[in-house]
């Protein structure tokens, strides 16, 4: 089977997501030297906080054991293989870019597990008023790529249609 004509933008999105994510992590860990639990305030609503995530998205399924961590790595490998197969067959540039963002984020977080035994998360959004407080999960740039890719897939499935589809077929 021949690859999708949209493979190149998807691969570019994958590589860009992976490189930006890993470069930021190396910068924070090696140059800034941020340590676990350390907080650096960037804006009144944004801190950089070093948090090691031993689970999957949003800290679910925490795995402290070596076996558990490698099980998560194998799960990521399988997920990236499935996404790669989908990317190979992508029917639109938007689908290809979305899949590239998701795969790049998954590879970035998987690489963290191999290198560090956990995923390095840094960004903490929060809002605090006199009577109310909101704290979002701590996340990283790989997570941003994954969420952006999923949002693009949802957008395309709801509003974008498929190449060659008529307006009536999308209704």
TrEMBL record:
Cellular compartment(s): Cell membrane
E.C. numbers: 3.4.23.36
Gene designation: lspA
PROSITE patterns in the cross-refs: SPASE_II (PS00855)
Lineage of the species this protein comes from: Bacteria, Pseudomonadati, Pseudomonadota, Alphaproteobacteria, Hyphomicrobiales
Name recorded for this polypeptide: Lipoprotein signal peptidase
Single annotated GO MF: aspartic-type endopeptidase activity
Database matches in PANTHER family: LIPOPROTEIN SIGNAL PEPTIDASE (PTHR33695)
Pathway: Protein modification; lipoprotein biosynthesis (signal peptide cleavage)
